[in-house]
Specification:
Shape: globular
Family: Belongs to the glycosyl hydrolase 37 family.
Structural class: mainly alpha
Number of helices: 26
Largest sheet: 3 strands, parallel
Strand order of the largest sheet: 9-8-10
Enzyme class: hydrolase
EC number: 3.2.1.28
Helix content: 40-55%
Organism: Maudiozyma humilis (Sour dough yeast)
Keywords: Glycosidase, Hydrolase
Amino acid sequence: MSRLGKLNTYNFPHDNSEEVDPDDTRSVQSAAAPKEAPRRHHRRMSSINEYNDPFSNAEIYYGPETDPRKSQRAAASAAAAAAAAIPHKLNRIRTMSVFDNKATAAATRLALLGETHLVRRGSEDDSFLSSKGNRRFFIEDVDATLDELLHNEDTDKNYQITVEDKGPKVIKLGTANSFGYNHINIRGTYMLSNLLQELTIAKSFGRHQIFLDEARLNEDPVNRLSRLITNQFWNSLTRKVDLFNIGEMASDTKIDTPEAKNPRVYVPADRPEQYEFYIQAAQMNPSLKLEVEYLPTAITPEYVKSLNRTPGLLALAMEEHVNPSTGEQSLIGYPYAVPGGRFNELYGWDSYMIALGLLESNKVDIAKGMVEHFIFEIKEYGKILNANRSYYLCRSQPPFLTDMANVVFNRIGGTSNPSAVNFIKRSFVAAIREYKSVWTAEPRLDPETGLSCYHPDGLGIPPETEPDHFDTILLPYTKKYNCSFEEFRKMYNDGEVHEPELDEFFLHDRAVRESGHDTTYRFEGVCAYLATIDLNSLLYKYEVDIADAIEKYFGDKFVDPDDYSVTTSADWRKLAQLRKERINKYMWDEEAGFYFDYNVHIKKRTSYESATTFWALWAGLASPEQAARMVEVALPKLEMLCGLVCCTEKSRGPISINRPIRQWDYPFGWAPHQILAWKGLDDYGFTGDAARLAYRW
């Protein structure tokens, strides 16, 4: 269920990096690295891969390079060179065993007396260090040890070592003091899992031998992962636009057309300062062939479709910086984090979950920057986008801005900080605009029920998908028109043929993508007609949050800058109460203990048992009795070994060659479902259930 544990995804630093001792003759071969080449200065061209990582290279991480495959002659030459360079080096003392801590006790007595006599070196690490968990190991052959570990312990062959593996849960490692001659057993899932990570890192660095501190292996796994997330993972996922990296960030590998080969940036019509910024970037780096274009004031589905062959990155919020020494003004983008290393664009609802993690890691500036970008997107593009690429201009994602702004506001000083108050007021002005113009306006609003649906605009086939992604759907039409897939795609996108059934298919496909749950049988062929419990729970939360914000920050009187209407906190609380009543009327099933989606097209409640039922708890719209009923009936159906599953197996239905598995269905689980359920259950007093689910995840 979690993607954190894969062996090939770990690439991180540690705080206990080991340098080889230059005064130890056993380390001569290790220390005999090739002569360092003259250093050349390289101008910084990108900030994408700038990590403030003190352990970012193998020399710092594991010490100087070692290689067991070097010839004996090379080792002897290195030893001779080292001996010549250190004429007064002490000879290595004889290695003997340590019994009953006698050698350590003797050393302690001598130290107290101020004497400096040498003591015998033990075949294992010093007993004092052992007692502190600071033993060190020498792994003579990284590749062989990694192969042995995987062969013996990874019995399910998934490149992880977990409690589900049936291996002996023990491996022998050579001690550093004996230079690998004597061995110690390393036992247990946690230590072996950490060892798997360490060996993989060493291999990725090209190391064949390493010294390894035991502290790296027995570190508490929660502390270890938390430290790595804070010190390494977030840095790898953080982006910030500047003059040097925009070409790389604007490049798009999803679209394969001749016009898409050059990176391109689209700038809102009322942002000339950003247009000049990107033009400057293009002139500074002409080899990038960066293209910069203005967007029109009115962005229509027809216009968005016209950009399918010339996709580009959409400009985001920037702040002005002044060089204190020169007085020169410049623009730089606010930082943001992406949901995966291959991405450079800012995503929608992923960003809320990301922001929660950033705040836990005290990365407040990045979380705040993401809210600034969303304020910008609502102002310039009319909505929080699926992501800031041109082909997403018609599509939003689940709305979390009000809560996202609140959690950031509380971390930047709250009401005691005037800048924070300005921030929260701007955030809610944007959220109200989004609420009115996107989620409670046609086509997303169903006027009969007063509930909202995922129902984005758009024309044609989504261009960001693989060329053959829809071939199964398009096959009957290629036969009907006696043409190839490529020819039909062009005919359909250009409006040369009209196929209402295909239009409806892509309407729902775009809606699934807007829902963030792409893909699931819950939404297939029907998504745009569903008033979902997840979306309407989020809008209830918007209404409650907006009421609180108007009361606290606007003097209980909000004048809308768009239509000049005046509302109070009471007006928004009425809206929230009305939505709660509608949700209970159309979606709540007392017997089933679930909130179900409601199909506004056929006017019928569905019966798809989804983990999004718990979003009603997160939003606070369920009654205590409804919450208890969900815990009694719905929770047992969705709780699995590793947390909440997306839906029940019964709701998903049978799987076959013609009905393949979907990633937002049983048996998969996703972090957003877990996080919102934990918070909702805890808010309603089911703290034990929340803790159990969190532990399972």
